[in-house]
Amino acid sequence: xxxxxxxxxxxxxxxxxxxxxxxxxxxxxxxxxxxxxxxxxxxxxxxxxxxxxxxxxxxxxxxxxxxxxxxxxxxxxxxxxxxxxxxxxxxxxxxxxxxxxxxxxxxxxxxxxxxxxxxxxxxxxxxxxxxxxxxxxxxxxxxxxxxxxxxxxxxxxxxxxxxxxxxxxxxxxxxxxxxxxxxxxxxxxxxxxxxxxxxxxxxxxxxxxxxxxxxxxxxxxxxxxxxxxxxxxxxxxxxxxxxxxxxxxxxxxxxxxxxxxxxxxxxxxxxxxxxxxxxxxxxxxxxxxxxxxxxxxxxxxxxxxxxxxxxxxxxxxxxxxxxxxxxxxxxxxxxxxxxxxxxxxxxxxxxxxxxxxxxxxxxxxxxxx
Length: 369
Description:
Blueprint: E1 17-18, E2 22-25, H1 32-41, H2 60-68, E3 77-82, E4 88-95, E5 106-111, H3 120-134, E6 139-145, H4 149-158, E7 161-162, E8 169-170, E9 173-181, E10 190-196, H5 202-220, E11 236-242, E12 245-259, E13 262-274, H6 283-297, E14 303-307, H7 313-318, E15 322-324, E16 328-331, E17 338-341, E18 347-351, E19 362-363
Parallel strand pairs: 13-14, 16-19
Antiparallel strand pairs: 1-2, 2-3, 3-4, 4-5, 6-9, 7-9, 8-9, 10-11, 11-12, 12-13, 12-19, 14-18, 15-18, 16-17
Helix pairs in contact: 1-2, 3-4
């Protein structure tokens, strides 16, 4: 329920913005339930005026009334919703009465905890800042609590830097005041590419090599795209990049395997890696989601298939993979002999079609991924 200041120099952000995954639009009363949830999810360290009071106000009805009240100053915070499903995620926009002013607004965003770590805040704020630059604003500001690591990470991605301005220090913590010059080239945006192995460019191969070497060169030597550390190479590469730097990758190889007497075409998945500087930011989930979509779009593939360490099973399960229990036979990456994974070792599949996975032992008919 943040209002604009109504100052003469401020140009309200009142239209609709569209990104690859999101629509940002003016608030309506139907958004109130989600906005109320945002109030309930706020950190205990925020000031009292940012929390529900002892009587539970503002209620969803209070928020809806504020949105529809013609006497209220209209907010320049737009509702963020999914461009496909219409599901409401929170808000993002500009304010002019905090650290900013008429000519230099402040960006603000708040999304439901359920959709954190998916890049939505960065995507929405990027669209808002682009609008601000096109509207003629020279700089944008952002205040953030020092303890709010997730929001600080978003601001870092957006190109905000410490302004040198002293923020408030109180029992709630210290406020950092950051700023970004809107007249400069936009911060490199995040993008995801899907490339068949034979179509990788020289620059893409180099970027992938840097990613894998940063993790494995000391222990496993240089990355070989045609035989990565002895595992089966990928037919398809899904790469998530910031600027020219690849920071996350998922690869898969199409192969017909055997489960009992059934032949199944799988997307054997490997090379799942996020650069150490970006772990915990949600890029792993986003690059995996794109890889899973590619599997579903591939008419030849029935299932995604992977083996992994027990420690990372929760990550895969959280991104839609499900665990099966089977005895797996494959060719050893060490010496080319026949090998068997013990029953119960982590094997996960992703349903890429309407086919049913047969409850049978598995022969990969080659090396694992």
